[in-house]
Amino acid sequence: MSIEDKIALVTGASRGIGKATAIYLADLGANVAINYSSDEQGAMSVVEEIRKHGRKSKAFKANVSCMEDVQAMMDEIRQEFGGLDILVNNAGITKDALLVRMKPEDWEKVIDVNLNGVFNCTKSAARIMMRQRRGNIINISSVIGLTGNAGQANYAAAKAGIIGFSKSIAKELASRGIRVNVVAPGFIQTDMTGMLPQNIKEELLSKIPLGRYGDPMDIAHLVGFLASDESSYITGQVINVDGGILI
Ligand SMILES: NC(=O)c1ccc[n+]([C@@H]2O[C@H](COP(=O)([O-])OP(=O)(O)OC[C@H]3O[C@@H](n4cnc5c(N)ncnc54)[C@H](OP(=O)(O)O)[C@@H]3O)[C@@H](O)[C@H]2O)c1
After folding, report:
1. Residue 1 has pLDDT above 90, yes or no
2. Given CB 3.0 to 4.6 Å as the disulfide criterion, which of 10, 34, 101, 202 pairs with 59?
3. CA of 175 to the centre of ligand 1 (A)
4. What per-residue string of b and e applies to 136-154 under the rule 16 or more CB within 10 Å gives b?
5. Closest Cα to atom 46, ligand 1: which residue?
6. pLDDT band at 31; cut points 50, 70, 90
7. Which residue has the higher pLDDT, 166 or 53?
């Protein structure tokens, strides 16, 4: 499997799933732009690691929920890297609360980053990809977007929104040589899940048929496959990577 010399952008790549994915895409041969919003040190360490692998990399600070930031980042990537072949929309946040306690700003913030951010980056990248007549977009949703979860109405709405959005644009962009797929992770060990209380983590673990939490590399491996030509007949799909939790 190879994506030799392809140009990739991974949003929210300063840590967690985005970091593992960016490094794996570089392992497969891509030059990788690293997006972050505040963790400059984390982003720079990913850039350094990718450069050690002999691939081009640069960090771009941009809040994905801000279209001006995103457009400026895409313009810079086009100038510095010469185009864009692979977009991984990974940046995401949680602001959990039961509906009755959910503040409107917590609803808006999660929709802004997790859903509007995907719209902003995809719209901006699609312009470049349509001109190239090739491209590959991989959106990171969640099993929560398929099942819902008490205390995560904002997050579930955003992640379900990503699925409808992705299926729609997969239909729009297929004739331009652009594929769009969704990865829906289950419980993956990162900072995002690290903040959950121990009893919730144990309860979740008991529901995972494969008997372990996911590792960021479990997601990276599927993204690498979807980004490669080995998956060239797959578009508009949602693929769960969840240890069987949704069986
Ligand atoms: N972990 C799981 O179990 C799990 C399960 C299902 C789905 N997911 C999804 O997988 C993705 C990655 O999750 P993770 O667990 O790796 O999270 P994480 O460790 O909390 O990392 C989140 C990343 O997103 C970036 N980010 C946050 N807000 C941003 C913004 N406005 N603009 C640009 N970047 C921003 C962060 O960068 P800064 O620190 O610089 O802000 C960070 O690099 C998310 O979309 C998440 O919803 C995760």
Report:
1. no
2. 34
3. 31
4. bbbbbbbbbbbeeeeebbb
5. 92
6. very high
7. 166
pLDDT at 27: 97
First to last CA, the chain: 28
User: Is 145's C-beta closer than 6 angstroms to any atom of ligand 1?
Assistant: no
Q: CA–CA separation, 59 vs 47, rounded Å? A: 7
Helix 67-81 × helix 117-132 angle, to 10°:
30
> Mind listing the domains of the chain with CATH numbers?
7-188+216-237 (3.40.50.720)
Q: How far apart are CA 24 and CA 217, in angstroms?
A: 8
d(CA 237, CA 152): 24
Give the residue, out of 10, 67, 90, 112, with the most ligand 1 atoms within 8 A of its beta carbon, to mutate for a pocket test: 90
Look up residue 192 and give its two tokens: 């995002």
Phi, psi at residue 217, to the nearest 5°? -65, -25
Instruction: Give the pLDDT confidence of 51-104 residue by residue, as tens digits.
Output: 998 999 999 999 999 999 999 999 999 999 999 999 999 999 999 999 999 999
| Residues tagged active-site | 155
Residue 29 has phi, psi (to 5 degrees) of 115, 0
Nearest ligand 1 atom, CA 69:
32
- How many beta carbons lie within 10 A of that of residue 202, not counting itself? 9
